[in-house]
Amino acid sequence: MSIRTSTRTPLRILTVAGLTAAIGVTTVGHGMSADAATRSFPAKVTLNGRQHIGDSANAKGAVVDKYKAGRQVPVTCQAAHKGTLWDRTTDKLWVPDKYLTTGTDGYVSGMSKCAQDDGSLASKRYGRIDGPRGPQGGTHAQKVDRVIAAATSQTGKGLTYSWGAGGKGGPAYGVGTSPSGYHDSNRFGFDCSGFTLYAFWKGAGVDVGSNTTAQYAHAHRVKRSQMQRGDLVFWGSGSSTHHVAIYLGKGRILEADVPRDSHSVREASLSAPGSDLMPYVVRPV
Q1: What pTM was estimated for this model as a whole?
Q2: Which is it for the CA torsion 216, 219, 222, 228, positive or negative?
Q3: Which residues does 240 contact at the CB level (< 8 Å), separation at least 6?
Q4: Which family does it belong to (predicted)?
Q5: Domains defined for the chain, CATH in brackets
Q6: Which three-class secondary structure state does DSSP give residue 15?
Q7: What is the pLDDT of residues 52-94, one digit of tens each?
Q8: Distance of alpha carbon 58 from its chain centroid, rounded?
Q9: Which of 3, 179, 218, 227 has the fewest Cβ atoms nearer than 10 Å?
Q10: Nearest to 183, CA basis, from 82, 96, 55
């Protein structure tokens, strides 16, 4: 495309790029709409730029150490690929979204999806997902039976431990970075308190709280020496807690705990997570 500016002055040719610059239009990368802005996010680690979405860090054509740790990476759009979120840069390279600090573990609000998005993250749910309240009626024993049945129903499914994952609606993908440095947004399952939250909500319609601190402060506490089937057992020190499980009786518990593998949601020995048992247990029902 060219435009003659005047027949009385020397010929001036404007390319498309020149014309858009002249009228103030910002050109955008593939998959972006004309009103979508490029956003920049700091890299968590030094990253290789990939030529194609889904490429490994050392795939053919990768630009080694293209984006330095702590430096801003300009992103034009985002795309899901086989269950993992990727970011397209202004250099027409790809980087895994989990290595950029975007403030979320999913799509960034207001950013466009690239044309390469395969829809594999459309149904992903993260964190403390909501779900229907379970039945509230019945005797104490009946409620405990339902709670334990709800918890047991999640074992043997290959669910993994995932920080911040799971809630009233069941298992989900994790959020943020765990205290031990794991980025769990691609791990599907529960963390310890998400698992117990689900069991009591599904089995007895009781909201025990979304973390171990809230759960330890919930309802009726009794001395550990008096614990019964269906009580919540905690690990920690002082007023701080770091793990919770459901007591089954006879020295057995149901829990979601590390290691992060297909056996994270399981029945286990009461002594398994360590010796720092809290002096009280909680009886939510």
Answers
A1: 0.61
A2: negative
A3: 213
A4: Belongs to the peptidase C40 family.
A5: 32-121 (2.30.30), 140-283 (3.90.1720.10)
A6: coil
A7: 999 999 999 999 999 999 999 999 999 988 778 999 999 999 9
A8: 26
A9: 179
A10: 96
The alpha-helical segments, DSSP class H, found in the chain are 16-23, 140-152, 192-204, 212-216
Whether 22 and 1 have beta carbons less than 8 Å apart is answered as no
Amino acid at position 36, single letter: A
Secondary structure percentages of the chain, helix, strand, coil, to 5: 15, 30, 55
Counting as low any pLDDT under 70, the low residues of the chain are 1-36, 272-274
Question: Rg of the chain's alpha carbons, rounded to an integer?
Answer: 26
- Is the separation of the CB atoms in 74 and 40 below 8 Å? yes
Distances 152 to 129, 203, 210, 230, 253 between C-alpha atoms, Å: 19, 11, 19, 12, 10
In this prediction, residue 272 carries a pLDDT of 52
**What per-residue confidence (pLDDT) applies to 37?**
75
Residues making up the chain, counted from first to last = 285
Per-residue tokens: 206: 């009781």
